């Protein structure tokens, strides 16, 4: 017997955390009976488990790296009919994104049907570094960039120390290119950090996730992660 949220996550339906929400909302049935109690257990081999009326079955785990273009939603579906990252992956598996990139942000995002893997990478206590390249309005001073390195106060609390590097500043065009590396995953965090020092983002791209880069990919393209990359990500997450 295993916890119901773990079974749902391993089946590739969603992450374990989201599975807990589905259970609480009464959207999960075991052998025809709605189960709403967290911590409930089932036998994935003999019990019939349904999510939103659809029986689940354990899928082989798959792992993809996508170069997300701007104008694509980091979600499984979108009520407004906008294109989603899952539509860009050629697979018959039910994959979903690990974390999010804003609609207007391009760059590296991972998709999988492995709920445990996704949950591990997204857990706040694990510090996987993510590097962004931002084109900002104006040319930030060294002092302003130092405040980002030390951590800056936002409406949801102070940010952790970041690595910041000025790539290029153009006073004539009144803009600059800044590289920013963080390990947190707050909503629109990079944009809010740069706006907080008076230099709003004009364009943003995630260049790196841990040791993974976009090398060899153009916007809209994807590739499967190699087994050793998946293993290394797991090791990186728990160190």
From TrEMBL:
Name by which UniProt lists this protein: Pseudouridine synthase
The protein's enzyme class: isomerase
Keywords: Isomerase, RNA-binding
InterPro entries the UniProt entry points to: PsdUridine_s_RsuA/RluB/E/F_cat, PsdUridine_synth_cat_dom_sf, PsdUridine_synth_RsuA/RluA, PsdUridine_synth_RsuA/RluB/E/F, PsdUridine_synth_RsuA/RluB_CS, RsuA_PseudoU_synthase, S4_RNA-bd, S4_RNA-bd_sf
Domain (RNA-binding S4) ranges: 2-60
Family: Belongs to the pseudouridine synthase RsuA family.
GO molecular function, one term: rRNA pseudouridine synthase activity
Domain of life: Bacteria
Recorded coiled-coil stretches: none
A GO cellular-component term linked to this record: cytosol
EC numbers: 5.4.99.-
Pfam families: PseudoU_synth_2, S4
GO biological process: enzyme-directed rRNA pseudouridine synthesis
């Amino acid at each position: 017997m295993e916890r119901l949220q773990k079974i749902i996550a391993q089946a590739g339906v969603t992450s374990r955390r989201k599975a807990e929400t589905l259970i609480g909302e009464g959207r999960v049935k075991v052998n025809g009976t709605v189960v709403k109690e967290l911590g409930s257990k089932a036998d994935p081999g003999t019990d019939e488990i349904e999510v939103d009326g659809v029986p689940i079955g354990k899928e082989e785990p798959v792992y993809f790296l996508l170069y997300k273009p701007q104008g694509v939603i980091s979600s499984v579906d979108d009520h407004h009919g906008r294109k989603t990252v899952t539509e860009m992956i050629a697979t018959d598996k039910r994959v979903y994104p690990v974390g999010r990139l804003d609609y207007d942000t391009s760059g590296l995002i991972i998709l999988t049907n492995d709920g445990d893997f996704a949950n591990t990478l997204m857990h706040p206590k694990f510090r996987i570094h993510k590097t962004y390249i931002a084109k900002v309005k104006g040319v930030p001073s060294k002092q302003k960039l130092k405040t980002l390195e030390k951590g800056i106060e936002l409406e949801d609390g102070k940010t952790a120390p970041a690595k910041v590097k000025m790539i290029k500043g153009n006073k004539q065009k009144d803009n600059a290119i800044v590289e920013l590396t963080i390990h947190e995953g707050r909503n629109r965090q990079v944009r809010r950090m740069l706006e907080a020092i008076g230099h709003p983002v004009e364009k943003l791209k995630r260049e790196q996730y841990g040791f993974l880069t976009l090398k060899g990919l153009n916007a809209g393209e994807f590739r499967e992660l190699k087994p050793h990359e998946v293993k290394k990500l797991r090791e990186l997450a728990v160190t």
